[in-house]
Design brief:
With about 260 residues, the protein is α+β, with helices and mostly antiparallel strands. It is built from 6 helices and 12 strands. Helix content is about 25%, strand content about 20%.
């Protein structure tokens, strides 16, 4: 607890001195360029597989996202250490971690916002939001002006089966906009029980008991090692005691060299 408290105090100090970077509406929210408390994730979790979707074009926008200068993942030091414990856990079960996204600079979030406001641009609709009209993405909270990823302790990930040599079947793709991505889709994530309840799917989509169980393997490993889940995305987890809960970082995604 002492280490976490020191991180929080540091974040508060940063916000206190970066007055010009703080929002006038909420002076507790600061933009920060300093990457000194971050690490390149593979330096801490060397066996993690990188598939950084926002560096490439296979994502819901269909182009590389602003601020992603290299196909790497960054996290705060404490989040990376916790993810190493997750990795050690799942490796014993025959899996490796596969990372889609981690730290996301504010300019990347701003790119999402501009894209969402450009209603005619539906290049990737069939792959990520075929059941939705793009105009509802703000109202249904698929796109935000601020993201927990920008605070540096949130990660989007899945599992890779080492024996089968392929990604584990989770019954849905990363960044799918719809209730099918919710952890409670077709089951109870608190008990791990599969119920088959797909009533929230607008077109009757479903996932199998095995696919739900695979989601639970990832979820339970993340929760065991200090992360909390999001109720709308099975792949999204944030460190419970994140060190910068009110600071949004702006430096680009590229290898951090010490």
């Amino acid at each position: 607890m002492r280490k976490t408290n020191l991180w929080v105090l540091f974040a508060a100090f940063v916000c206190g001195i970066m007055v010009s970077s703080c929002s006038e509406k909420n002076t507790k929210v600061c933009l920060e360029e300093d990457s000194s408390q971050f690490v390149t994730l593979t330096d801490v979790v060397p066996d993690a597989i990188m598939e950084i979707r926002y560096y490439g074009t296979y994502n819901f926008v269909g182009t590389r996202i602003d601020g992603y200068e290299e196909p790497t993942a960054l996290l705060t030091r404490v989040a990376a250490d916790s993810l190493k414990a997750v990795s050690d856990d799942v490796v014993k079960q025959g899996y490796r971690l596969k990372i889609y996204d981690a730290y996301r600079p504010q300019k990347g979030v701003d790119h999402f916002v501009r894209w969402a406001a450009n209603i005619p641009d539906t290049l990737m609709k069939q792959y990520f939001y075929p059941d939705l009209d793009k105009s509802v993405l703000f109202d249904q909270e698929y796109i935000y002006e601020k993201s927990g990823h920008t605070r540096g302790s949130t990660v989007d990930l899945t599992l890779f089966d080492m024996a089968a040599e392929k990604e584990v079947d989770m019954g849905g793709t990363f960044d799918w906009f719809g209730p099918e991505s919710h952890p409670d889709f077709c089951g109870n994530p608190e008990t791990g029980e599969y119920t088959g309840d797909n009533s929230n799917s607008p077109v009757g989509r479903t996932i199998s008991p095995e696919q739900f169980a695979n989601r639970m393997i990832l979820r339970q490993a993340m929760l065991r090692h200090g992360f909390k889940a999001l109720d709308s995305e099975w792949w999204h987890f944030t460190l419970k005691d994140e060190p910068f809960p009110e600071t949004y970082f702006t430096f680009p995604v590229r290898q951090i060299k010490r």
